[in-house]
## 1
Amino acid sequence: MALHRAVGCDTTGCLALYLSTPTAGPDLVLFAAERAGWGVTAGGLVMRCPSCRTHGLAVTERGNCPVCTGSTHDGPHGETCHHCGHTVPHPAVDEIGDEVVAGPAR
Ligand SMILES: [Zn+2]
Ligand SMILES: [Zn+2]
């Protein structure tokens, strides 16, 4: 069984998690987390999620944010995280109704 590699925020009461792919090594996870906005101290001993790091606000509600697992809402540009502000653009769906993400011809 593959394990998801995850790093959690060390702020008390903060629920933020950064999830990585099961194939990524521990070093790669920290690197990816840092790239996503997390604060990682030397050796990855203390982690700070982007929200705690930049706003000092703990993530108190879990949601779909790929960066901090915080709760998200529908913003003008996509699904926006309440906590770290990360935005996932809406997939190219709707509008017409059956338009699907571009891919190889069916
Ligand atoms: Zn945090
Ligand atoms: Zn977030």
## 2
Amino acid sequence: MHENWKFLTEAHKFTDLPQDEIPEIVFWGRSNVGKSSLVNSITNLKIAKTSKTPGRTRSLVFFELKGKFRIVDFPGYGFSKISKGDEFKLNKLVDYYIKKRKNICKFLVLIDSLHGFKKIDEDIISQLNIFIKKKIFIVFTKQDRLKNKCQLDHLRNLNDIAGKKLNKKFFNTSIKQVNTIILLKKFLMSS
Ligand SMILES: Nc1nc2c(ncn2[C@@H]2O[C@H](COP(=O)(O)OP(=O)(O)O)[C@@H](O)[C@H]2O)c(=O)[nH]1
Ligand SMILES: [Mg+2]
């Protein structure tokens, strides 16, 4: 089965945001965590640019499944290669989106399975909790990179933090393990 996901638009300012009621699933996380790769896997398309150089996304990128759902690829946080002026504008847009956007149905915070939660991730999650607590889910990425028992135990630990301490539903994923993508996708497309 091939769904017809398409690139819709790229938002740099409030007025660029689509004005309708279509539910939006947001992918956020540190630069390089694997947002765009995951968006590509979920949509079965190579539509989101992936890169080896972090900090490139300067906008909110919207993909749409025929009037049913949208996926929003958020600009990565952590390291930014954009100018201060652009960064300020982008932060204002992100802020506005999180506080006001009614379309948000699920908000995924991606965490690298090897690196775990950083201070910035914790700060972001507590900020998000203020506005959209019930819509936040944690996605651990790149789990194929875990090789030894120690690293696998570390992921179990991260899972415990997500589930027990943060009280969030979580998913362990890898774009190289189709079953993990199918599971996540099923959850995202359920109401
Ligand atoms: N091994 C492995 N590498 C991944 C996975 N997902 C993403 N990557 C790699 O991580 C890098 C950053 O990915 P990207 O999707 O551009 O991250 P973004 O900055 O969060 O959008 C790229 O080199 C990807 O190929 C994964 O599941 N497994
Ligand atoms: Mg990206």
## 3
Amino acid sequence: MSEDTATTKHVNPPTPDEPTGVEPDGSVTSPFHLMKWIETHRSDFQPPVGNKYLYSGRDFFVMVIAGPNARNDFHKVDSEEFFTQIQGDIVVKTYENGAIVDHLVREGETFFIPPNVPHAPCRPAGTLGMVVERRRPPGELEHQIFYCEKCNALVEDNEFDCADIVIAFKDAMESFWEDPERSTCKSCGHRVPKPGPYVMPEGLR
Ligand SMILES: [Fe+2]
């Protein structure tokens, strides 16, 4: 990493009170219908990320994510992730060997992110997906990375000690987009913009 791409450390906010599968009286939460749960919580799925915890357990957590999202950050962590696409098609970008690769994940398909592969889910309007991730061990760092859309150079790598990624990532990406210094590529001068809601490119439909 060059001196220009400073790594910024963020303090993580307290984990919100999310469902753990156990009710306040100690009983196990009864089965519930996924699509009805999504409809009940529809207003909670807000850009830029559009995610909400379905389950926040000890060993893993599950998020439901509704499109559109509006983000151009990549995420890297020493953990695996499991994607399944419930409704509509999305693109998951990965950063592999210095280039950005578009993986089209169609409705009904699943997709796996191996550990330490930078990835960026791009979700058009009207889509619904689910992601399962490992609960991070204490002290494990998460990276939120911005690459230049013109030349693929690293623009910024933000490091988190992160128990909750819903709030911390949103705040971090907003402050990046607002800062012309931080969001400008040191290699080619292109500025990484705050993106609008993701729209599936013609060539991938
Ligand atoms: Fe660039």
